């Protein structure tokens, strides 16, 4: 395939792709831009575009060359369309493809160690291995997380590194179906880039600097205990969004070195960065690259577009240096890096960036050797400077203006970019005819401004805006009122702009802040025109400034003489909107052709008219020209641009939507050359002012081409039918091959870059049709993605009158006569809006309109469209009737309800109530309740939710609106609890009962489960609610269950909790002072500092009575607690395993060590003895023989329990003895106390359980 172009500014490389560019060993660089791969021939001096690889339907996400010698022309590309394509870069042809992915492909790499292995990964974490020679395909799924990058090892085809969005890196073995060898952890954010070392660098532990981690940015931070790997794995470098670079040993899976990005002061004035303080993290892309033959040097990107070279083997604190100097650096973040060693030995680094530039660096000098500008949007305007020869201005959808010195010998792509003050697409450009560097521009949002190309000042912006897109800008002679005044008071020329709203404005370039004037007023005043002028779509001043041609949306071209704009003639040739006009070039040969005017429209034809006679001898009235001098009709799409050659007589270049540019010989009326190098619609064209064999074109494919007509093989555009405008509205356009999706409307996201040069902007999707209004054949910029299908036409509200407009021509003319008769002869008896004159009610008075509405309503009802009847009644002002109609048919809606208040309060309330009934029938109860609230029907709304068993919502509403003690709220809780209990949701039901204040019911519900936790909770709930009887009953059930499961401690704890709670609630006849809290025997309740009487089981089950002397400390039986806090000299040993009183003065019989019982008197706490009588337990007399530890019976008296009313002698704290009477016991309970039956049951159960526990054999372990 031959090269048809000379120089090309390509589309910008895609953003946010880990590996979207690569370079082979012969110096051919490929990069993905939109859905195309562009190929560059790279040298140390410059580069040239070889061509492109087109075939993907969506954005290219990855690109990689084959690294094997003899096959380096092979390359692979992946796309968001789910395909991987294989190409021959030399012939630029597709070889094969595969679709092994279900998700979006995010990374691709052709293995450097195997000439046939190509690995790709998608956003679902699936990795696909494809063998190019056999076509075999396998996949594995090592980690169910989003994959971000991958890299094949150059040392072994089996090794593959995978980087994930969560910061994880996996080393897997491809030969073992993705078996994970190492999991590298250390990064905290997504892995942007992975790069293998070309060989094993000297990164031993001793070589790494020993700076403490995190001490200073830019230092190398060695990991503790790092060792030199052994084997063929080598090293792996990873760049992450966490602003660090890590070097790993792939044999050991351990980190070797950590590099933290240095904070560099932003240079170049671009947007990006934020430094190490975190401000740049959101816009950071950390790309890493390990150059060939440089194992100890690593390249990385930085915050603001700088490139950093890390010396991994250097000593000292600073391990890095920055590439370039001054403004050589990128001004925004860098996405991809690739290197190549030329045959001359020079090693070059190629980088792509968000600043839309591709730079080439010499790694020996670390200097930038050349820069290639790229475009981020469609090119809509080209303009050569008439003063600075060869200076070409180009503007497009990426919101930037570029001035390109096309004649530069040192740098063939020497450009300067202007973006300040621009917030929209550039749709028109024109240089000042005499002032050097003054460039006027127009934008898609209707702004007009002037740039000084030789300064860095922001542009001047006109205070007068167009309402729509600027179609055309041109300099011309001043017209009134700017033409009034002397030579020093008026401008030498004015700036004219034509906008999409159809107006042409004249701006004063000396003061753009002043208001611009519309030339339509001057045209009407000069020519006495009363009617409204047709909207203008383009204009062109004759080079000598004497005549201006104005194109209109109706296809006509009007010619006016300056300065009064007297109309000279009107060209009625086109039948569609005029897109472009161009007068013959003033420098072209044969000046007698200076009155040739070329015009192009959406009819795909170019007409050339010779207006000499009309301009030199104008007729009165102005002549109407309907015959063309030449008709050029080979294009198959809309004409978008024209350019006369300044070097040839009557040679014209045209561009079209058919993706081609055509050169014509106008005198012969035939085509000479057709250029087909663009991949999309061509939007603008300029003939070179210095080279007769060079033409420049800009297109929707985001490129500008320089091409020579003499090298083209085609003479005419490809055959095809004329484009149908309906396809443009749908976003489909027929071209040379078939239907083409316009970029930005292809299926799926295409991720186009067009919005550039402004802060905060991301990669915007380009709307390719943003220059002109839809009627002109270009879709406005506000139109975004739409379905690629024909839209259904909306039903007419007035179908009868609409249908009558499609009658015969005679009937329509008769309607016009009838309407004029009634309008100008009111006395004529003609009835409108009925019968054959139905549709005339739209053009007459209100009664006729209402009559027409009535017939239309009947037609709607007959056709089954009652909604249209409602709207017609609303339009006629009958709000109540419209609402009544909608209510009867059950078709009320939110829109009608919003209109209801216009009919009055009564109508509104009734409509809301009707709408609530309708919503209930439609099971929209929540919405119905909300509408009841709008008319202050709170209780009705709550009852509505309650009646439909929406208890939760009803309670929420009641809680929010009603008082806390409202009976309605309690009833809701009880109702919900009953429903929950019925469904088995016992815990939720208990909560409802508790909220309703029904603690008894809550405890009963919880106890239904009968398990220990539920019973324990139920007992607690009952106790807290004051239901003591129920609490004791449930506690006994719980203790019984725990005892049955041998959980003795749990059973005792349950009974103890209830006993303590019950004892606290029993009144006492005397308040007994306590001296100290004394712990009781393990697991049993005890008295605290109060003399008490308790039942003490003996070893034989018989209670005993003994007197305990207090003058001597007696050791207690093994394992039992002794008295605490009471002055005594001896603790009484009770029978083994029996509890005894602690700290309580008592009289008891103490068994002696010889087996003889002894009786001692126990003094009080102050040394005063007291005597008390011990009641017996279980009906047995209180004095009996108790076997001692030596088998000798003993006697003791046991004090009563705490909280039980008793009469006994209580020791006072002042040493004065007190005497009180201790009641006897009956059936194990104290006689004479005020105890309820529940206390009795609880006490007996407690004693029985305690006896049972202490009779168990002791564990000897």
UniProtKB/TrEMBL annotation:
Which parts of the sequence belong to the Gem-associated protein 5 first beta-propeller domain?
Answer: 71-201
Q: Which GO terms describe its cellular component?
A: nucleus; SMN complex
InterPro entries from the entry?
Answer: Beta-prop_GEMI5_1st, Beta-prop_GEMI5_2nd, Gemin-5, Quinoprotein_ADH-like_sf, TPR_GEMI5, WD40/YVTN_repeat-like_dom_sf, WD40_PAC1, WD40_repeat_CS
State the UniProt keywords alphabetically.
Answer: Repeat, WD repeat
Annotated membrane-spanning segments are none
Output one GO BP term. Answer: spliceosomal snRNP assembly
Disordered: region residues? 193-238, 752-773, 1059-1229
Pfam families on file: Beta-prop_RIG_1st, Beta-prop_RIG_2nd, TPR_GEMI5, WD40
Q: Where are the WD repeats?
A: 53-97, 232-258, 632-674, 675-708
Q: Which residues form the Gem-associated protein 5 second beta-propeller domain?
A: 388-698
Report the residue ranges that make up the Gem-associated protein 5 TPR domain in this protein: 840-1048
Classify the source by domain of life: Eukaryota
User: What terms describe the molecular function in GO for this protein?
Assistant: mRNA 3'-UTR binding
* Listed Polar residues bias regions: 1059-1078, 1089-1114, 1143-1187, 1197-1227
UniProt protein name: Gem nuclear organelle associated protein 5
Task: Give the originating organism.
Answer: Gadus morhua
Lineage summary = Eukaryota, Metazoa, Chordata, Craniata, Vertebrata
């Amino acid at each position: 395939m031959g090269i048809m172009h000379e120089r090309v500014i390509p589309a910008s490389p895609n953003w946010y792709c880990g590996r979207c560019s690569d370079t082979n060993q012969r110096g051919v660089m490929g990069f993905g831009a939109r859905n195309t791969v562009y190929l560059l021939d790279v040298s140390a001096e410059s580069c040239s575009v070889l061509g492109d690889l087109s075939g993907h339907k969506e954005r290219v996400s990855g690109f990689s060359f084959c690294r094997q010698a003899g096959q380096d022309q092979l390359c692979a590309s992946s796309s968001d369309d789910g395909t991987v394509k294989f190409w021959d870069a030399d012939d630029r042809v597709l070889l094969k493809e595969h679709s092994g992915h279900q998700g979006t492909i995010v990374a691709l790499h052709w293995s450097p160690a195997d000439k046939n292995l190509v690995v790709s990964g998608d956003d679902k974490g699936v990795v696909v291995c494809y063998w190019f020679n056999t076509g075999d395909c396998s996949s594995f799924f090592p980690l169910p997380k989003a994959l971000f990058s991958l890299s094949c090892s150059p040392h072994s085809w089996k090794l593959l590194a995978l980087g994930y969005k969560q910061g994880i890196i996996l080393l897997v073995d491809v030969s073992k179906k993705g078996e994970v060898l190492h999991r590298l952890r250390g990064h905290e954010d997504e892995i942007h880039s992975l790069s293998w070392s070309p060989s094993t660098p000297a990164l031993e532990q001793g070589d790494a600097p020993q700076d403490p981690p995190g001490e200073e940015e830019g230092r190398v931070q060695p990991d503790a205990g790092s060792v030199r790997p052994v084997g063929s794995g080598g090293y792996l470098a990873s760049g992450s969004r966490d602003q660090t670079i890590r070097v790993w040993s792939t044999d050991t899976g351990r980190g070797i070195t950590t590099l933290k990005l240095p904070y560099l002061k932003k240079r170049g004035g671009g947007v990006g960065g934020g430094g190490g303080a975190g401000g740049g993290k959101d816009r950071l892309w950390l790309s890493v690259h390990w150059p060939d033959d440089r194992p100890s040097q690593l390249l990385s990107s930085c915050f603001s577009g700088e490139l950093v070279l890390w010396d991994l083997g250097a000593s000292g604190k600073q391990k890095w240096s920055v590439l370039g100097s001054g403004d050589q650096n990128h001004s925004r973040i860098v996405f991809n890096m690739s290197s190549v060693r030329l045959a001359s030995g020079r090693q070059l680094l190629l980088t792509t960036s968000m600043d839309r530039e591709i730079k080439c660096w010499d790694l020996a000098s670390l200097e930038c050797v050349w820069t290639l500008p790229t475009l981020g949007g469609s090119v809509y305007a080209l303009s050569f400077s008439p003063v600075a020869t060869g200076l070409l201005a180009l503007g497009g959808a990426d919101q930037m203006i570029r001035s390109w010195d096309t004649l530069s010998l040192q740098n063939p792509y020497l450009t300067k970019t202007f973006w300040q003050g621009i917030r929209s697409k550039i749709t028109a450009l024109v240089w000042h005819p005499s002032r050097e560097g003054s460039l006027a521009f127009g934008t898609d949002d209707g702004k007009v401004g002037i740039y000084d190309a030789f300064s860095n000042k922001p542009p001047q912006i006109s205070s007068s805006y167009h309402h729509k897109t600027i179609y055309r800008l041109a300099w011309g002679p001043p017209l009134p009122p700017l033409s009034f005044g002397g030579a020093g008071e008026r401008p030498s020329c004015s700036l004219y702009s034509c906008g999409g709203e159809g107006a042409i404005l004249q701006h004063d370039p000396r003061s753009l802040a002043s208001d611009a004037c519309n030339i339509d007023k001057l045209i009407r005043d000069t020519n006495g025109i009363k009617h409204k002028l047709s909207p203008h779509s383009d204009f062109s001043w004759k080079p000598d400034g004497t005549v201006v041609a104005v194109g209109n949306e109706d296809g006509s071209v009007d010619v006016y003489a300056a300065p009064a704009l007297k109309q000279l003639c009107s060209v009625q040739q086109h039948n569609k909107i005029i897109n472009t006009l161009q007068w013959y070039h003033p420098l072209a040969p044969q000046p007698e052709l200076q009155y040739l005017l070329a015009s192009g429209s959406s009819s795909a034809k170019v007409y050339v008219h010779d207006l000499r006679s009309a301009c030199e001898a104008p007729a009165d009235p102005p002549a109407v020209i309907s015959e063309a001098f030449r008709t050029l009709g080979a294009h198959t799409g809309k004409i978008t641009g024209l350019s006369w050659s300044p070097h040839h007589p009557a040679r014209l270049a045209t561009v079209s939507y058919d993706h081609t540019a055509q050169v014509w010989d106008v005198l012969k009326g035939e085509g000479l050359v057709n250029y087909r190098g663009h991949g999309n619609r061509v939007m603008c064209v300029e003939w070179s002012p210095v080279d007769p064999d060079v033409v420049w074109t800009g297109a929707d494919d985001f490129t500008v081409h320089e091409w020579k007509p003499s090298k083209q093989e085609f003479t005419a555009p490809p055959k095809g039918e004329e484009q149908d405008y309906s396809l443009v509205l749908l976003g489909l356009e027929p071209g040379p091959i078939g239907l083409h999706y316009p970029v930005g409307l292809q299926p799926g996201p295409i991720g186009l870059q067009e919005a550039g040069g402004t802060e905060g902007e991301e990669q915007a999707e380009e709307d390719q049709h943003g220059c002109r209004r839809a009627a002109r054949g270009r879709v406005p910029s506000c139109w975004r993605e739409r379905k690629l299908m024909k839209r259904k036409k909306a039903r007419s509200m007035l179908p009868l009158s609409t249908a009558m407009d499609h009658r015969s021509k005679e009937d329509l003319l008769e309607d016009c006569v009838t309407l004029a008769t009634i309008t100008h002869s009111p006395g004529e008896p003609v009835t409108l809006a009925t019968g054959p004159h139905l549709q005339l009610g739209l053009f007459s008075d209100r009664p006729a309109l209402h009559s027409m509405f009535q017939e239309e309503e009947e037609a709607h009802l007959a056709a089954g469209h009652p909604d249209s009847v409602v709207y017609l009644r609303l339009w006629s002002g009958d709000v109540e009737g419209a609402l009544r109609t909608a209510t009867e048919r059950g078709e009320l809606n939110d829109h009608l309800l919003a209109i209801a208040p216009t009919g009055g309060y009564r109508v509104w309330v009734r409509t809301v109530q009707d709408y609530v009934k309708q919503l209930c029938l439609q099971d929209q109860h929540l919405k119905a309740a909300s509408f009841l609230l709008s008319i202050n029907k709170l209780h009705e709304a709550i009852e509505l939710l309650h009646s439909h068993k929406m208890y939760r919502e009803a309670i929420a509403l009641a809680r929010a609106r009603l008082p806390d003690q409202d009976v309605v709220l309690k009833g809701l809780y009880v109702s919900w609890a009953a429903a929950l209990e019925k469904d088995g949701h016992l815990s939720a039901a208990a909560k409802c009962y508790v909220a309703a204040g029904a603690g008894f019911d809550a405890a009963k519900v919880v106890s239904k489960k009968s398990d220990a936790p539920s019973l324990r909770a139920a007992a607690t709930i009952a106790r807290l609610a004051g239901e003591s009887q129920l609490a004791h009953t449930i506690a006994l059930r719980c203790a019984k269950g725990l005892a049955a499961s041998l959980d003795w401690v749990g059973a005792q704890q349950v009974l103890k909790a209830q006993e303590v709670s019950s004892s606290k609630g029993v009144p006492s006849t005397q308040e007994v002072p306590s001296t100290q809290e004394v712990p009781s025997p393990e697991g049993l309740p005890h008295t605290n500092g109060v003399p008490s009487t308790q039942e003490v089981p003996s070893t034989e089950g018989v209670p005993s009575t003994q007197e305990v002397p207090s003058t001597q400390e007696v050791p207690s039986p093994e394992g039992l607690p002794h008295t605490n806090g009471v002055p005594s000299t001896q603790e009484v040993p009770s029978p083994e395993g029996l509890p005894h009183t602690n700290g309580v003065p008592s009289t008891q019989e103490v068994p002696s060590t010889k087996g003889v019982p002894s009786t001692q008197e126990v003094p009080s706490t102050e040394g005063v003895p007291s005597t008390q009588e011990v009641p017996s337990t279980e009906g047995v007399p209180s004095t009996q023989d108790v076997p001692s530890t030596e088998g000798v019976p003993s006697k003791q008296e046991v004090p009563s329990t705490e909280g039980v009313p008793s009469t006994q002698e209580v020791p006072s704290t002042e040493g004065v003895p007190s005497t009180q009477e201790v009641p006897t016991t009956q059936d194990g309970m104290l006689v004479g106390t005020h105890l309820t039956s529940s206390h009795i049951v609880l006490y007996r159960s407690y004693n029985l359980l305690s006896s049972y526990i202490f009779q168990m054999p002791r564990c000897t372990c």
